[in-house]
Amino acid sequence: MSVNDEELTEKEAELMRELEEFKKEKERVRNLLGSIGGARQNRREQLINMGFLAIVVVFFTLELTTHFLPSYISLEIGVLLVSIKIIMLIHSANRANHFSFWILNSIEFRMNEINKRTITMEKELNKIKREMNLPD
């Protein structure tokens, strides 16, 4: 086996390690995404939305047919339910924004890390060129 073949197998082994590391990280991110906004959460939000809708429809129907509550109390209950729903939407949006910020911050960190590695590699390459008396 020649030197070039050994270098090639070393590079292949390194690429395979990097590929395995990437797959592990991808699976970790996928699990994290699932825990933050997975199907269970959507199911819970659907149940809450259906509950709000049912309460509003029941109050609306009872108010139109029986007038069992004074109209201003029904109006206040409706405003309260809408306010609660708006607060829930704001909370959900904040969670999504926080997660987006976390992802962007992670990407920036990785880019800076790659940039540092590139600069180091350029310095080493220039050092090797100077040692071999090659032009830049």
From TrEMBL:
Q: Which UniProt keywords apply?
A: Coiled coil, Membrane, Transmembrane, Transmembrane helix
The membrane-spanning stretches of this chain are: 47-66, 72-90
Annotated coiled-coil segments of the chain: 5-32
What protein name is recorded for this chain? Uncharacterized protein
Source organism: Spirochaeta isovalerica
